[in-house]
Design goal:
It contains 10 helices and 8 strands. The chain is of the alpha/beta class. It has a single domain (about 5-235), classed as 3-Layer(aba) Sandwich (Rossmann fold), CATH 3.40.50.720. The chain has an 8-stranded mixed beta sheet, sandwiched between helices.
Length: about 250
């Protein structure tokens, strides 16, 4: 790290749990963020601000006026622009030292496999089951830690699936793919604006801890948030030995 980077990240470096070594790990790390919407916005902002060296952001959608209530990485001037590109523009304003790559189309299974293989951590900020199942399959295959989040109405959830641990469940263990299209979207159900920030920043924290190898991740635990009552609950998770993906 150069002198400017040492100054920029000094508040991290001051903490003994992180120090120079931990910050240096971040600058050499590569995070894959799938989705640049409500969850992906705070994830990308905090990972870039924290100095993660390379961010690959995947999103084929364009910014819409209805997104601006919660997707804080985008501005009014971003309406009509691809979300990954809009995010890239914002992140370079925050931290020009970060290398931000964009994927502006729907990836095939093989393309997704290549993206996952290149990353040190994968953050699922998508809003549909097809993408979640596909990401999970690739993270199991390549043994990459997957930080998963979801938010709808006033309820959110966050966990980590880390197949580097033999006891870790995968996404399919919790939510088996039964072939039914049961996606619940913000466009039809609504979402409380700060909720996606609370879930997304928690995802960012988990990703940063994983990249630096510090603390205890949410692997084996599912956090549930009821923002209307402002209550957090924790559910212990177990691997399904009969899981067709990771069993």
């Amino acid at each position: 790290m150069n002198d400017n980077q040492l100054l920029r990240y000094s508040r991290h470096i001051l903490m003994p749990e992180i120090g120079y070594e931990g910050q240096d790990k971040l600058t050499k790390s590569h995070a894959l963020i799938v989705g640049a919407g409500g969850l992906g916005s705070p994830v990308a902002l905090y990972l870039a601000a924290s100095g993660v060296g390379t961010l690959t952001i995947c999103d084929f959608d364009v910014v819409d006026l209805t997104n601006l209530q919660r997707q804080i990485i985008h501005t009014t001037q971003s309406v009509g622009i691809n979300k990954a590109v809009s995010a890239q523009q914002t992140l370079y304003e925050i931290n020009p030292d970060v290398n931000v790559k964009t994927i502006q189309k729907k990836s095939t299974e093989q393309e997704l496999a290549d993206l996952v293989a290149q990353a040190d951590v994968v953050i699922d900020c998508s809003d549909n089951f097809a993408t979640r199942y596909a990401l999970n399959r690739q993270c199991v295959q390549h043994q990459k830690p997957l930080v998963s989040g979801a938010a709808l109405k006033f309820e959110g959830q966050i966990t980590v699936y880390d197949m580097r641990a033999s006891t870790s469940p995968c996404y399919h263990c919790l939510f088996p793919d039964n072939g039914e299209d049961t996606d619940l979207r913000c466009a039809t159900n609504g979402v409380f604006s700060p909720l996606v920030g609370m879930v997304g920043t928690t995802q960012a924290a988990e990703a940063l801890k994983i990249l630096m190898g510090i603390g205890e991740s949410l692997q084996g635990r599912l956090l549930l948030l009821d923002a209307l009552a402002m209550e957090w609950r924790t559910i212990r998770l177990k691997k399904d030995p009969a899981c067709i993906v990771c069993g």
